[in-house]
Specification:
single chain; Arc Repressor Mutant, subunit A; 3 domains; Nucleotidyltransferase, domain 5; five-stranded mixed sheet; 13 strands; globular; 11 helices; 393 residues; alpha/beta; 19% strand
């Protein structure tokens, strides 16, 4: 989509159609405040280039029936990569935000970097071959990694507890490996971007996304734009202090939210619960406890599982309440594997928000559970699209 780089108005129209489409020309005029002749000319140019297509006719309000425009999903493609500590996911994504295919591998933070790079190279090639796509049709590669990035002036990043590597020029290495543009982002931030473009965040200009999984991260959209901070290090809500006398965190601090809220903590807290032995029959056994087994136990009315998830909801609620008091967002969106315990998690979470948030209207802020699948890889791919469509802004 290099042809968009020289036209700010083309970028604005394509950006709007991807996020809000299908749209009529009159809706584009009204939203972007561009003149009717200009929109007619610009949309015809985009149609001729194959970037957008006419996709249907609406109901007339007295004049000509409006013709709706939408993005051509197969004009270009993107790669989204989730490079986590436990797993690598690589997805091929079209311009509509549809994940065409995903390859993934469990790494358990034990692979060498050379093995990771080899896996990325082999599997991006395989995905293109599977869908008969030429690499020239790919806009670039977005990569989500655990934060913070700790970016140095030479482009080196330092990631905590990451494959036994201290410093790495990850972006530069991947650009050389794949011969494509590369953008990096923190997992929670890229997942937030996906929500903003394709998920529950589409209807909100100011919202916070919480990624509750192995750890807890967050992303913020302010005035319709992803906020990353002065050093691309914002959103590390998991390392805000909730209890100064609490447990020691992997970051070295005491009482971080992440010491109370994580997938690992769910399993540990269930095993050490005083009534766990009385409910062993609900958990199969104590040696291979998994989140899926915990979900099954909840369905079977496990008091232990309910107690642990309720307590985690309260802790997460304190962290979110602090953020609401600070930023006053329109909505909160929950994602990550912990959000899958939504029923037992959100009631105590909302109760804590009502107790801790000061502004009356914010006490009843909407709490959504994400409906997106694999929103880290989708958001990583969207990093590239966001960069292309905002290069003149």
């Amino acid at each position: 989509m290099e042809i968009l780089a020289n036209s700010e108005q083309w970028q604005k129209i394509v950006n709007l159609i991807i996020k809000k489409g299908p749209l009529s020309r009159s809706q584009i005029i009204k939203t972007l405040k561009i003149s009717q002749p200009s929109v007619t000319r610009l949309t015809e140019q985009l149609i001729n280039k194959g970037i957008i297509v006419e996709c249907g006719v609406g109901i007339s309000s007295g004049g000509r029936k409006p013709v709706f425009l939408n993005i051509n999903p197969d004009y270009s493609y993107l790669f989204g990569i989730e490079l986590g500590r436990a797993v690598i996911k690589i997805s091929l994504v079209n311009l509509m935000g549809e994940i065409l295919s995903t390859h993934q591998a469990i790494t358990n933070n034990a692979w060498s970097l050379n093995k990771i790079f080899e896996y990325i190279k082999v599997n991006t090639t395989m995905l293109l071959k599977k869908h008969k796509i030429n690499v020239k049709e790919v806009l670039g590669v977005g990569v989500g990694v655990p934060g913070p990035l700790n970016i140095k002036q030479d482009g080196t990043i330092h990631l905590t507890n990451f494959y036994n590597v201290k410093n790495i020029k990850l972006k530069e290495k991947l650009k050389t490996l794949l011969n494509l543009p590369v953008e990096l982002g923190i997992n929670a931030n890229v997942a937030t971007l996906a929500e903003s473009w394709y998920g529950k965040g589409k209807k909100h200009n100011n919202f916070i996304y919480i990624l509750a999984d192995d750890g807890v991260g967050s992303g913020m959209v302010i005035d319709g734009k992803l906020y990353s901070g002065s050093h691309k290090a914002s959103g590390v809500i998991g390392h805000t202090t909730i209890d100064k006398n609490g447990d020691k965190c992997i970051c070295g601090n005491i009482g971080c939210l992440e010491t109370m809220v994580s997938t690992t903590k769910i399993l540990k807290n269930i095993k050490k619960h005083p009534d766990f032995k009385n409910e062993l029959h609900l958990f199969h056994n104590s040696h291979n406890l998994t989140l899926d087994i915990v979900k099954e136990a909840l369905i079977k009315k496990s008091k232990v599982a309910k107690s642990v998830i309720n307590e985690m909801g309260s802790s997460l609620g304190i962290g979110i309440a602090n953020t609401i008091n600070l930023l006053d967002p329109e909505a909160i969106i929950l994602g990550g594997r912990i959000s899958e315990f939504s029923f037992d998690l959100t009631d105590p979470l909302k109760e804590m928000i009502k107790k801790k948030v000061l502004e009356e209207q914010s006490k009843n802020i909407p709490i959504y559970i994400t409906t997106l699948q694999d929103n880290v890889v989708l958001g990583a791919a969207t990093l590239i699209l966001n960069s292309v469509l905002n290069s003149n802004n």
